[in-house]
Amino acid sequence: MNVSLLLPSKLKAGDCIGIAPLAAPVEPGRFTSACNYIISKGFRLKYQIDPTRNYGSRKDLFSSYSPQERAEHLNNLFKDPEVSMVLAAKGGYGCMEVLPLLDFQAVRDNPKIFMGFSDITAMLIALHMETGLVSIHGPTLESAFARSAEQAYQDCLDFTFSFLEGQPVTYPKPEVTIFSGSASGKLLGGNLSLLASLAGTRWQIDLDSAILFIEDIAEKPYRIHRMLTQLKLAGCFRGLQGVLVGSLRSCEGDNSSDPSLNDVLTDIFAESSIPVFRYSEFGHVAANLPLPLGREVEIGPNGLKFLKLPFAT
């Protein structure tokens, strides 16, 4: 899909943040804690449907509401002139079934910050591909916002709010170099399981001239290899310029004799002649730093740097 880049406006004090239940329901206590924290930061909240509904039940299978209800709520948040940012309530499972029901024209007409990660990757990719929106891979309401009392999550939130408000931020240097070098390109990616699941659909990721970032949780090395191979065989890696590998928590093998994640990454990208670095500060970890999809970045031994601002000026 060849669409022009669509930049959201940066977040300002007093703005209204819309909460979107798009996948799994949120535990009520965590929902309350997260809302209280956001309000304490000087922002207003808005949501039409309760993200905690169905917690502990199977009424709508794995999700808080039916696909139609979740899509309608997200569409309304983008249409609502009072809402400046849409924050996904939680990942889990359920986003892919919502994609065909989204009002992409409403997003084109009302660009605003949209942020989430994990299963929300499906939404991040679809919104960016269909509309050009620079969506944000970053914390959900249920993750960091609900755990702001813990220092590691508070550090992530401080960084995230600085980023969303358009302040200068510095990303860390890579911790492990799989293949050295430097490269530039548009930043695209998210949860590896979701990227692999989107292969063969309308929203299969196109990584031509891109820097890919991936993260995942509780997937053994052979599964990581299988998903990367799937993307490779689907042609997604044509024109790929570089790779950032985030947290792969609980993804190592059971035995020391098993191939490691570094072995997997080395095998997959050995013939690509592109830089591949490992970080631990985005994904299913406390330090889930925000990454804007579609914006030009440069990667190298010194870390990640924006070549263009991710928000409208």
Describe this structure in words.
With 313 residues, the chain is an alpha/beta fold. The chain folds into 2 domains: 16-164, Murein tetrapeptidase LD-carboxypeptidase, N-terminal domain (Rossmann fold, 3-Layer(aba) Sandwich); 176-306, 3-Layer(bba) Sandwich (Glucose Oxidase, domain 1). The protein is built from 8 helices and 13 strands. The chain has helices at residues 28-40, 67-79, 104-109, 121-131, 151-164, 192-198, 221-233, 261-269; strands at residues 16-20, 44-46, 83-88, 113-116, 136-137, 176-179, 183-191, 210-217, 242-249, 276-278, 291-292, 296-300, 303-306. The strands form 2 sheets. The chain has a 7-stranded mixed β-sheet. A 6-stranded mixed β-sheet has the order 2-1-3-4-5-11, with helices on both faces. Strand 9 (242-249), helix 8 (261-269) and strand 10 form a beta-alpha-beta unit. The two termini are 25 Å apart.
